[in-house]
Amino acid sequence: MRESKLLIVIAFFSIYVIWGSTYLLNKIVVSEVSPLSLASIRFFISGSLILLIARLLQFSIKITKQQLINSAVAGFLFLVYGNGVFVWALKYVDSGFAALLASTQPLFILLLMRLIDRKKMQKKSIIGVVLGFVGMYLLVSQNDIVASEGTLLGTFMIFTCLLSWSYGSVFVAKANLHKNFFVSTGYQMVIGGVLLSISSLLFNESWSSPLEWSSKAQLSMVLLILFGSIVAFTAFNYLLKVVSPEKVSTNAYVNPVVALLLGWYFLDEQLTLQSIIASIVLLSGVYFITSRKRKTNLTVPESDNLG
Fold it and tell me: How many domains does the chain have?
């Protein structure tokens, strides 16, 4: 029993701190490496390692044609557009700022479900949506953001990423995918990595050998692959089996705070009073949305994490 509690604590630390740090790590690597090539290397290696681990654990990795197609669609929505474009946007916005915008994902999922499934909003959800939009306005209306064309573009593209991730979440909840969550994510990452490589070549991105990167960028990539993609995902999957989804979803409140503090400490990113107020309003909105009573549980896959 004591061992189980310790594992739960370690797992929560993983999805809180490790996922919160992925914004900082991506920001460090993208300062030296083209964004789509960065994402392609990360996810192809991560997915290959996940499938290798699954094979060693004697999980079946056989997949049907329809499951493969659905994995490709999910890989595009989550990784190619969702993560690839998000990493590109980090060239123009602070990592903490991006994490705060990413925390509004439950709001976008809620609105999409309302449009697609015609689901009626509960009172808590309506309060959450209002707070979410107020928080987003406070966040993006700051003078230094409005005055910067690059930051405005990066912010707009992050919002399109949110739509892609959110639609991907709704799609995956209904799609025919490999029954093993671990294997399914491995396929999505491998396919996403291949598609990202093709996209990188189509956009004429420059590729460089990891041996040419700085030691800081190399270490950040290793941490993204081993901890951000594999360890944190395993912890997330474990928590979904032993605690309620509502408790697991609390990472939506903690990740942006971790990202803000790490960006401020390591990258000297600005932490304005308006940003702090906006983050409080935003995360309050996320709380109201994720704490509403659910008729059915919607499980969001690891690749839906924005970092």
Answer: 1
* 278 SS3 class: helix
> pLDDT category, 81, cuts 50, 70, 90?
very high
* Structural domain that includes position 26: 2-304
Give first-to-last CA distance, the chain, whole Å: 32
Q: What is the pLDDT of residues 158-193, one digit of tens each?
A: 999 999 988 888 888 788 999 888 899 899 999 999
Rg (CA), the chain: 19
The Cα-based distances of 191 to 75, 78, 155, 184, 278 in angstroms read 6, 11, 27, 11, 37
φ/ψ (deg, to 5) at 121: -80, 140
Q: Are 183 and 3 in contact (CB under 8 A)?
A: no
CA atoms within 13 A on the CB side of 161: 30
CA–CA distance, 166 with 111 (Å, rounded to integer): 9
| Burial annotation 242-271 (CB, 10 A radius, 16+ → b, else e) | eeeeeebbbbbbbbbbbbbebbbeeeebeb
Q: Are 227 and 16 in contact (CB under 8 A)?
A: no
User: Phi, psi at residue 139, to the nearest 5°?
Assistant: -70, -45
What is the signed CA dihedral for 7, 11, 17, 21, rounded to 10 degrees? 130
Distance CA 8, CA 26 (A): 27
| DSSP state, residue 82 | I
Note the pLDDT tens digit of each residue in 255-266. Answer: 888 998 899 999
DSSP string across 149-199: HHHHHHHHHHHHHHHHHHHHHHHHHHS---SSHHHHHHHHHHHHHHHHHHH
* Of 93 and 113, more confident: 93
**For residue 9, is pLDDT > 50?**
yes
User: Please, which residues have CB within 8 angstroms of residue 70's CB and are 6 or more apart in sequence?
Assistant: 171, 175, 176, 177
Residue 298 gets the label, from left (phi > 0), alpha (psi -120 to 50) or beta, of: beta
